Amino acid sequence: MQRMPEKIDQLTHLLTTYPILNLADPNTEFTISTDACMEGLGEVLLQDKSIIAYESRKLKINERNYVVYDIELVVFIHALKMWRHYLLGKKFILITNHISLKYLFSQPDPHARKARWMAFLSEFDFNIKNIKGKENKIVDALSKHPYNLMEVAISSIKTNFLDKIKNSLHKDPKYLDMQQKL
To answer: Domain limits of the chain?
Structure first.
């Protein structure tokens, strides 16, 4: 039986390398799939149905008092802050299972917090696409168990992921293909 640190190292390796994670192509449209529940938030950044990055976190104490609509907005804001460097100046799609968010910009008189969020969201060029909750499987696990995946598999490990990513680039077929095109 493997010791626990070896299992965590193996899981970390699998979750942070190809084929789970792919390199972003600046010329391809991004899609962000989001989900929120009363436990946490989950987001996945995708290109051509390939995962570029993922993120999850527990809800903060004050966020647990928000109405469902605002929690769903929190997940948008969190995702856009995380991947701002990929998304600014590009058109992308935000996928949610909360249908009322499609009408986000047509609501009159938002409260102060929502007005700040709307100002932040207006920096980006995106369309909101609604899907059924059961079809949003990728982020469902991240939002329902944010502490399991991220804290145990990644955050608790003291390692330099940037070095690991740099070292694994030479094995990534998409990276090698992009290098040949340059």
So the answer is: 4-181
